[in-house]
Design a protein that fits this description.
By secondary structure, this protein is mainly β. It has no helices and 16 strands. The strands form 4 sheets. It has a 6-stranded mixed beta sheet with strand order 1-2-3-4-6-8, with no helix packed on it. Strands 5-7-9-11 form a 4-stranded parallel beta sheet, with no helix packed on it. A 4-stranded mixed beta sheet has the order 13-14-15-16, with no helix packed on it. Strand 14 (about 160) and strand 15 (about 170) form a beta hairpin. The protein is globular.
Amino acid sequence: SGTCGDNLTWSLNLHDSTLTIIGTGRMNDYTDNTSPWYTYKSFIKMIVLPDSMTSVGSYAFWSCSSLTTVIFGSQVNSIGNYSFGWCSSLSSLTIPTSVKSIGTNSFLGCSSLFLNIPNSVISIGENAFDLLPNVAYSGTATGSPWGARCINGYVEGYFVYSNETRDSLFACSSAVEGNVSISEGVNYIGNYAFRD
């Protein structure tokens, strides 16, 4: 346990692998291996952020490869650069409508995550969603390319298609295990669809 902002503290429960942050205001920014919980990154499966926290720091949860779930507070307005980069098991995360900006490579390599971006987001950093199977967003944020394999694709199970006709397959979630069957109607498979 310790501090992670002027008015934020963190604690890690090793019994249930939950990292909990409490307090108010902005989280500190870090570099790729300097967050205070970095030593425990492979143990963290869930992160709980408080309603009164306003930002997720750069590299905050970088490379937490066992992380599956993040519960955001209702007042977070920015997600820092590389904050969830290479959290390859992350599959449950809802970005709150309080978020206005998402930094560069914020979700890089989160290959199990199908992400819905609220229209409140007005700034998206370069390659924020690099290697994500699909990102759904209908807003007008600045910043491109975002790096997702598909934007506003049709999601069915582990697959992302370009639309409901399911003739173009763009991605497969890395959460899938074993063999997969591709429907007969597919006549195009996008680059890197099965990369992870």
